């Protein structure tokens, strides 16, 4: 204690009649105070601040709270905090532990036990679910900020490699048949594959030299875009993340691999029929900004006849699938609804794809998936088809398909689509 400077030591007594000497004494006192503080700060910064963390105690607390035979918190609380059922969470822990040795329990450089797979996955899931900083788990999991950040990065990378092939797959012929059936029963639209739209994620740590590229007039901060296709069960069938936020939906579509399988001949052959006309490919519901392609169906901006008004109502109701999917994603995974702290687009893309995969896994685990079983198609050798692109952008097919869908809806008895006298 004697070696440290007393920050609250009393000022020396100075005569009242000597104002100049009193001022000089006060100045010398504060100069000495600043010098001593600088010396203490230099001495403390040269030493590493080592914190002893009870890893074993953190694991025991986690087990007692959620995973013991009689846990402190029940299944509903677990699902609220981890965004999934306990059985699905334990399956993910087991899979990532077997897939990547980084999640396996071992010994550190001091020959002490490292964090358990349960602690590492819990840290990653908590960061994805809440969007809070990595040091949030220091008090509960006894895990440092750096280790928590590594848990998130390794977890996202492992989940994308382990589950991406199944839960971010393109629709197979089996999936397309189920999607056709489900959408026709729910939305009364034959041949519908899903709804297509884009959303933005705020990028907090965007470098200064890239801010102009990732900013747009209608967004206050730099953003990264995501193009996605969602079906009626909110399953994400297509995801393309990474375009700069200054672009619009058409610019993203021109970069997107959405129709790559159609152009190289590997897409499943799934025709459908509506109004006695046969169409080669399914279609996506879009808003007005998208082009008039044969695989896009847009609403009428100004409907006139009753059938057009019925189609507009049904189109707007069905296209809310992708909007609801975006809302569920951002409300369930808080990291998507808060400014991203990652410093590269690659890491942001990994986080977004991980949230999409977990989103689809939860839908399957809850039994709400339209196509829960992944049945692969026979392998096909990719061959570039010159005529595929011209068929995709064919405007004549677009208008004929739209007319057939209007006539199809008009022939059905759907009271909820009837136009009231107030809307006339």
Terminus-to-terminus distance: 87 Å
What is the 3D shape?
globular
What would the average pLDDT be, to the nearest integer? 89
Estimated share of beta-strand residues = 5-15%
Overview of this structure, please?
With 424 residues, the chain is an alpha/beta fold. It contains 15 helices and 7 strands. It has helices spanning 19-45, 55-67, 75-82, 86-99, 117-130, 145-167, 173-187, 249-255, 260-263, 306-318, 320-332, 334-337, 345-365, 386-392, 395-410, and strands at 192-202, 223-230, 236-244, 272-274, 277-279, 283-285, 296-297.
Task: Indicate the topology.
Blueprint lengths: L18 H27 L9 H13 L7 H8 L3 H14 L17 H14 L14 H23 L5 H15 L4 E11 L20 E8 L5 E9 L4 H7 L4 H4 L8 E3 L2 E3 L3 E3 L10 E2 L8 H13 L1 H13 L1 H4 L7 H21 L20 H7 L2 H16 L14
Parallel strand pairs: 1-6, 6-7
Antiparallel strand pairs: 1-2, 2-3, 4-5
Helix pairs in contact: 5-6, 6-13, 10-15
What would the keywords be for this entry?
424 residues; alpha/beta; five-stranded mixed sheet; 47% helix; disordered N terminus
In short:
The chain has 15 helices and seven strands. It has 424 residues and is an alpha/beta fold. Strands 3-2-1-6-7 form a five-stranded mixed β-sheet, sandwiched between helices. It has a two-stranded antiparallel sheet with strand order 4-5.
């Amino acid at each position: 204690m004697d070696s440290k400077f007393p920050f609250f030591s009393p000022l020396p007594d100075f005569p009242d009649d000597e104002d100049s000497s009193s001022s000089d004494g006060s100045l010398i006192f504060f100069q000495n105070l600043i010098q001593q503080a600088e010396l203490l700060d230099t001495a403390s910064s040269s030493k590493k601040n080592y914190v002893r963390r009870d890893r074993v105690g953190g694991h025991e607390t986690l087990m007692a709270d959620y995973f013991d035979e009689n846990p402190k918190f029940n299944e509903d609380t677990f699902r609220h905090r981890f965004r999934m059922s306990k059985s699905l969470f334990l399956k993910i822990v087991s899979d990532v532990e077997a897939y990547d040795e980084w999640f396996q329990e071992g010994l550190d450089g001091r020959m002490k036990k490292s964090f358990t797979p349960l602690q590492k996955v819990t840290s990653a899931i908590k960061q994805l679910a809440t969007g809070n900083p990595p040091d949030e788990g220091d008090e509960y999991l006894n895990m440092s900020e750096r280790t928590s950040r590594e848990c998130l990065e390794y977890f996202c990378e492992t989940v994308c490699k382990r589950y991406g092939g199944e839960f971010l797959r393109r629709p197979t012929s089996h999936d397309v048949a189920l999607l056709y059936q489900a959408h026709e029963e729910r939305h009364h639209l034959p041949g519908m594959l899903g709804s297509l739209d884009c959303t933005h994620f705020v990028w907090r740590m965007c470098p200064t030299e890239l801010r102009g590229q990732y900013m747009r007039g209608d967004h206050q901060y730099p953003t990264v875009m995501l193009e996605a296709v969602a079906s009626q069960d909110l399953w994400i069938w297509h995801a393309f993340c990474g375009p700069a936020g200054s672009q619009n939906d058409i610019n993203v579509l021109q970069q997107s691999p959405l129709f790559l399988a159609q152009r190289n001949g590997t897409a499943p052959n799934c025709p459908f029929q509506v109004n006695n006309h046969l169409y080669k490919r399914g279609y996506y519901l879009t808003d007005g900004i998208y082009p008039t392609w044969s695989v896009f169906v847009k609403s009428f901006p100004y409907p006139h006849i009753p059938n057009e008004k019925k189609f507009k109502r049904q189109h707007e109701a069905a296209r809310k699938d992708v909007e609801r999917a975006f809302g569920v994603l951002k409300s369930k995974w808080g990291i998507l609804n808060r400014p991203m702290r990652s410093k590269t687009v690659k890491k942001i893309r990994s986080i977004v794809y991980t949230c999409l995969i977990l989103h689809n896994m939860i839908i399957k685990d809850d039994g709400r998936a339209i196509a829960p079983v992944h049945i692969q198609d026979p392998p096909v050798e990719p061959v570039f088809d010159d005529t595929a692109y011209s068929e995709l952008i064919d405007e004549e097919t677009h208008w004929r398909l739209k007319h057939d869908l209007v006539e199809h809806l008009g022939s059905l008895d759907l009271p909820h689509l009837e136009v009231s006298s107030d809307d006339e």
